[in-house]
Amino acid sequence: MAAAAAPVFLLTACDRGILNPVGPVGGAEKMILINSTAIMLAIIIPTILATVGIAWWFRAGNTRAKYRPEFEYSGAIELVVWSIPALTIILLGGIAWIGSHDLDPAKPLKSSVPPVYVDVVSLDWKWLFVYPDQGIATVNQLVIPAGAPVSFRLTSGTVWNVFFVPQMGTMIYTMPRMASRLNLEADKPGIYEGISAHFSGDGFPGMRFAVHAVPAAQFAAWVASARSGPTLDARSYDQLQKPSSYVKPFTYGSVDPKLFDYVLANRALPPVSPKTTPPAQHVSPQPPTGNNNVR
Amino acid sequence: MSATEAPAVGLTHGASEDTGLGNRGPQSKSIVVPYGFWLFVLSDMVLFSALFASYASLVHATDGGPVTNQLFDRTKVAIETLALLVSSFICGLAIIAAKRKNLLWTEIWLFFTGLFGFVFLVIELTEFVGMVRIGAGPQRSAFLSSFFTLVGCHGAHVTAGLLWIGTMMAQVWAKGFEPHIVRRLLCLSIFWHALDIIWVAIFTIVYLIGTLP
Amino acid sequence: MFGRLTWDAIPFNQPIPLITSIVVLVIIATVLAWITYNRWWPYLWNEWITSTDHKRIGVMYIVLALVMLVRGFSDALMMRAQQTVAVGASQGYLLPEHYDQIFSAHGTIMIFFMAMPFIIGLINFVVPLQLGVRDVAFPTMNNVSFWLTASGALLVNLSLFIGEFARTGWLAFPPLSEKQFSPGVGVDYYLVALQISGVGTVLTGVNFVTTILKIRAPGMSYMRMPIFTWTALASSLLIIAAFPVLTATYAELMLDRYLGFHFFTNDGGGNSMLYMDLIWVWGHPEVYILALPAFGIYSEIAATFSGKPLFGYRSMVFATLGICIISFMVWLHHFFTMGAGADVNAVFGIASMIIAVPTGVKIFNWMFTMYGGRVRFTTPTYYLVGFMITFVLGGLTGVLLAMPPVDFVVHNSLFMVAHFHNVIIGAVVFGVMAGYTYWFPKAFGFTLDERLGKIIFWCWFVGFYLAWFPAYALGFMGGTRRLQHIADPSWQPYLDVEMVGTVIILAGIVLTIVQLIYSIRTRDRRLDLTGDPWDGRTLEWLTLSPPPHFNFAVLPDVHGEEPYWTRKQTALREEKLTEEPKYEPIEMPVNTPTGIICAFFASLCGFAVIWYIWWLAILGLIGAFAVFVWYAWRDEHEHVISADEVARIERERRRVRGELLGQWKPVS
């Protein structure tokens, strides 16, 4: 019954989730998911059928079934029943080993296009995205060029959260005073939903964001237009930090590119932030202090 | 079932204790009680191992506050350790006296066991008070939180042990060397020696390594 | 005077908890009045509350578990209802601060106060009987353990009426559970309640390891112990090794919250990752503390109802101990998505998958136990087959979650929630329900109604699939857990199906109560006179149903792996019972109020700590110490049952068995 019901659900479940990936990471993960499921189903479906079949055939009322009360051990059968799961696990373990290394979230993606750097800070209960190279920041809205890898550094200004865009693949925790790393890519333009996938308090369900994957030219135009927004300095960061949920997306025109490092070190931002932000090169990936869980 | 093979009476009154494997029925209480107590001590050791793990992962999280080298005094800790080891040795003497059913010496040795335990505790408390005075209390940093918890948990065990020693002295005095009292004395000594083992680990991991130059 | 406790703590302005509180208080008052009216207090006090009899304590654990099942399931029902209606524009009927308490309470209660007491209750009832002995190693401590567990349950439920419960999820991850983010008493309720019940659980673990290793019938060597006893041993060992870690972890969080320490705080150099490590070092073995005894129950049922010894007994023992050991090496699979390196992820992922090997072996061995048997389709058999089907699917999703690259997209999702409900319901709940049906006649002398039992099974089975298979799909759609509000309207059909499934499970739970009442009222039709209603194979079926206080008039002498089965077959073949032994007086432990007094002071002290009423906390501690000394001072530990009394009870048993011998045909 379950085996019959499951595929029906799966088929209808793929329009916006992890079964409809839009980038190389999500695509590879979906493939591993489906392959592993298929390998296991090859064992499990016969097992279920055999269980029901044996139980039914050897029912007490069936006079045709041979009663063998002494049949309690068989070395050959023991060998087989240890081997079947063991061999399956060896096969799946191989997939897990290779997959863990290929899809390590911290590993930069191979691409001919240079990556876009984004610093992610989770707050109560919204997402702050800082573009250190562009000197702008957004809240609950992540705009990225389609077809280019995006390299994230992530931390939290409050409690733990998980940064997750189901259609792009791998999720990762944002943890206070720890920096995580993540590399994703969206191949085709579109709007994808992003969520927090770790409960973080009362406003948690409203902690959603939209990922806008746009063509490269459009991305540059968006950055230029975003610069007209307000400044994210110590005072406005304090405002932003205050708990709020279901926050409408908005954009900051300038931001201290070191904001991430201050949050990571659990230090207050300097009171006066630079008025104009030069298009600086990407800042050092090593935070000044604090735990760094990039191992 | 024949009449000859089941002289078992009560929960733990076994037929014989010769195999040691339990194959001939339940073990006697003199085996079962200390065995169960050992298991309890084992679970206590697991608790301490979690505290040790916390200490080990937080020892460098000083948050700009004092580090191990600035806080620990090897001489003082050496005296403290000596007091606890002597106390443990005397506890052994008390058990020997109890086995000989010598009431006076059992009481005397138990008293000195407790006394040296108390000395240990006083030294530990002065150390704690001194650290809090110079602003190195448990609220100062994660390192100090884990230090006070680990060492303090051991201290709390010693305090509980002192209460137990006092109770046992009263019981031995009032009831003499009944089997269940002797079993309790044995458990007490297991507990007291186990605290020594944990202290040796604390001494090594916290104080010796912590005061390396 | 009363610390932080004021009238504001009573939820006067929140209708749902207020009405629930009033209803529950009325029910409690009615029950108490009924007991008083019928003058049942002396009976309850002497025969149950102060009992040191492992059978009575086991039954009390199971009663606690059933009551907590109702409580925990009410939470589940409210959550499902909220998620069904709070889709899209609607915010539903529960505010986040209320919804968050409900899912935290649901997890806490179901694991610590439903599943644990149910499993421990069955272990308590069955293990000494299976070992052929008269009680556990430490009967008084057993009573204390139970009452400490009940004390924890009391405090958790008290939070409904006075104050609030944690809003942090059932594992209270910091920094969310730190004072900075959760200033209320909710997390304190959680921590204090679990500390108290945790002490009880550790003592239970110590008690059963000692019992199984040191107190067995003559001739009961390790490789002759029934498999349920083996799994109880494995589970108890895991308790001893895992629960102290939980105690230490919660103690550290309490120090953070109460005294401003910095173990897991964001400031002061605290490290919240440490909490994750410690809690899962306990948390993963905890899964097997629950699951292994359930596997043991299925093994007993498979053998009994197939009319065959368990297939591959030694394999099953090794598989159990293998799971026991490996379960401590896999905790890191709970945080593949916290940025550990690829090597670490891969090693722990593969270690986690390895657990599937001994578990898979068990499935095959149950299958071969049925093979060549005469399978009687009783209610427990239904649970066995239903479990085997459901559990392999849960195993599949479990192995998927153990693969880091797959976990990267389904971690913390509804897929994961569906997985652990798949194993907890499919293995543990089915298992305890099967065990409850299987051993009920042994405890009370009559069987439960089979027809209702099968309907209850179908409710759980169908209800489970409807309630949780849509959640697997929602997980694939990017659904995460603990959502008070669902933004995506396309989830609605799935949530509706889940709701239907939940209502079907509700019917099963209601029918469980109906079945109990109906079976009691019609017990004369289903009396178990022989003590062996299922044609059992292990020693618990040798004695009367319900067994006398001392279980066995003389301890059975064990020869071979299935001593009772062999003895029964001999008796049936020769059409006479074994020779009558010589009876001797038996010493049994006396009753003790230590447990309930201990629990009284623990609850008092716990409540005081939660509300910062320090004088009361100190009073509670002094009281506890006084009880300890008072208990240690007692002189009488045992009372004696005379040889005549033993002979009278045993001769009656032999008479009934002897009369039935002629009519009682072996199954072949």
Largest sheet of chain C: 2 strands, antiparallel
Q: Round the mean pLDDT of chain C to the nearest integer and report it.
A: 93
Strand order of the largest sheet of chain A: 8-5-1-2-3-12
Instruction: Tell me the major beta sheet of chain A.
Output: 6 strands, mixed
Strand content of chain A: 15-25%
The poorly predicted ranges of chain A are 1-5, 7-14, 275-295
Walk me through this protein's architecture.
The complex is a heterotrimer of chains A (295), B (213) and C (668). Chain A is an alpha+beta fold and 295 residues long. Chain A is built from 6 helices and 13 strands. Chain A has helices at residues 2-12, 24-57, 75-102, 216-226, 234-241, 259-264, and strands spanning 116-123, 126-131, 136-139, 141-145, 149-156, 161-165, 169-174, 180-185, 190-196, 209-214, 231-232, 250-252, 254-255. Residues 1-5, 7-14 and 275-295 of chain A have low confidence and may be disordered. With 213 residues, chain B is mainly α. Helices cover 74% and strands 0% of the residues of chain B. Chain C is built from 20 helices and 2 strands. Chain C has helices at residues 15-37, 41-49, 54-85, 96-131, 139-161, 186-214, 227-259, 272-306, 313-326, 342-354, 356-370, 379-402, 404-410, 414-444, 450-476, 492-521, 563-574, 594-610, 614-633, 643-661; strands at residues 586-589, 638-641. The relative contact order of chain C is 0.10. The mean pLDDT of chain C is 93. At the A-C interface, helix 1, helix 2, helix 3, strand 7 and strand 9 of A face helix 4, helix 8, helix 9, helix 10 and helix 11 of C.
